[in-house]
Amino acid sequence: MTQWPKPPEGSWTEHYPALGTGTVCFDDSVSPEFYELEREAIFKRAWLNVGRVEDLPRIGSCFTKEITIANASVILVRGADDEVRAFHNICRHRGNRLVWSDDPHQETGGVYRQFTCKYHGWRYDLQGACTFVQQEDEFFDLDKSSCGLAPVHCDIWNGFIFVNLDARPRQGLREFLGPMITGLDGYPFEKMTEHYDFVAENNSNWKLFADAFQEYYHVPSLHPQQVPPAVRDPGAGFTCAHFQCDGPHRLVSTAGTRRWALPEECMYPIERVTRSGLVGPWETPDVGALPDGVNPGKVDPWGISNFQVFPNLEILVYAGWYILYRYWPTSPRSHRFEATLGFHPARTVRQRVEHEVASVVFKEFALQDAGMLGGTQAALETGVLHEFPLSDQEILVRHFHKVVADWVGAYRREGIGAVG
Amino acid sequence: MTRLLPAQFADLEPYAQTWCRRTEAERWAVRAASSMQELADFYDAAFPRLEAAIEYCDEHPLDALPDDVGRLVELVHSVVMVSMAVEIFGQPKTVDSADAVLHRVREPRP
Ligand code: FES
Ligand SMILES: [Fe+2]
After folding, report:
1. Which of A119, A136, A149 to mutate to test the pocket of ligand 1 (most atoms within 8 A of CB)?
2. CB of A170 closer than 6 A to ligand 1?
3. pTM of the entire structure?
4. Is residue B97 part of a domain?
5. Which of A240, A202, A172, A176 is CA-nearest to residue A336?
6. Which of A349, A351, A355 should be substituted to probe chain B, the one whose Cβ sees the most B Cβ atoms within 10 Å?
7. What would the pLDDT profile of B23-82 be if each residue is shown by its tens digit?
């Protein structure tokens, strides 16, 4: 196995001294009180990615997003002026849910000409303005022009639609994302419009699940089947080539293997025939040079970079396709997991099959992570142990829980200040 | 019985009724409900024909596949689904997935 050089301090963790090297407490993933704090300190303050611009392809395209932990339901809509806007999903008349189907807590969507409230028929245009009030002259001093939908801060970066539920966001989106994440400027997400979407209700805290996707230390143990038995080394470890932290965000890059250059026994028969598999299609359309920010550690040969955008988005980029994960907390011990695989639109059946293989393999191994994390949650909830050691390969887990604690700490201090 | 697949793939016709499925959710459900013997039978018959099937389908534009070719693509997708159980896990269900589920809610067709 290749040993990748560590920073001069001797480890990735010590390269970021504020992280320390001590044990880490995971009470933050079982405590109902801490969950309440995350609600205010993180999910009502941070920029949250709710989708991609491809999810709103034309004027009137709309979807709703349930952000359970923030007690929010948000309407995302492309207006008549082609702008994407976000509104609270609540009617200005008497507070009915505006856009919903049979269950007010289920997300929905479609293409709309306007929004009509089912209760008394008030109407709103695609820009959120109130356009019709039933029996308007029965009201007292009602100014329709001030009855528009309550807006939610909304901004777009590289096709990713973000909302911010704060009344006055402390940072603009680009500033919040910072230089490491915006290093992905110019990565051609907009060309990879063939999407495979997955959802799951997982029985683990949102952070515990995110942890499983920001370290590869677990791969040989939990996912031994990623390597065919003929070449499986029971003692194998996994070493990542590059780690980086920037503000609340994190990144890990791993080296890439050219699957097609390997001996036969290094891959499964289905991979050989379809020329696709665990690392996706072997060949993807040439998109020209990728931005340097995709591989800031200059890893060669580069395989993937895994950007952890605080708080709950992961962008995993390959040279020719990408994966997104989002973790939406629904209780201290559960979250809604969303995943999207984005490919260049297939032009042939063979390419479509390549994408199908990647999507099927992805699901198999994500199920192992999801299955395992239910066990972690259950065991942590016994409260027997509180402090746990983390290796250098798990630096991003350490960083994530620290950032969460920092944001909660900042919120608490403000609260104390306000009382005093 | 009406033919579901192109005539060149008549040898796979016995599997078409079970394995020509439009969505991943259906293919997943059939795999989960099958015995290892049933999965192995299908795999042993269909995997050696996979390359030829993909090549045959590729003679048609992806957005205008005749019905029988479209069903052949669905069968190819099912070979992919079943190969995970046969080649990788040795059982219909993902090893170590406990009670986890993951629903594919949007996908291109076919
Ligand atoms: S609550 Fe919407 S019209 Fe009355
Ligand atoms: Fe994993």
Report:
1. A119
2. no
3. 0.96
4. no
5. A202
6. A349
7. 999 999 999 999 999 999 999 999 999 999 999 999 999 999 999 999 999 999 999 999
Whether residue B49 is contained in a domain is answered as yes
Which architecture characterizes domain A48-157 according to CATH? 3-layer Sandwich (2.102)
Q: How many domains does chain B have?
A: 1
Average pLDDT, chain A: 95
Reported as a single tens digit per residue, the pLDDT across A232-243 is: 988 889 999 999
Domain boundaries, chain A: 12-43+177-419, 48-157
pLDDT band per the 50, 70, 90 thresholds, residue A262: confident
Top-level CATH class of A12-43+177-419?
Answer: alpha beta
Distance CA A401, CA A104 (A): 32
Is there a domain that residue B65 lies in?
A: yes
Q: Find the distance separating the first CA and the last CA of chain B, reported in whole Å.
A: 24
ipTM tops 0.85? yes
> What pLDDT does A288 receive?
87
**Amino acid letter, residue A185:** D
Kindly identify the ligand whose nearest atom is closest to the C-alpha of A371: 2
Residue B98 lies in a domain: no
Q: Which domain holds residue B71?
A: 12-89
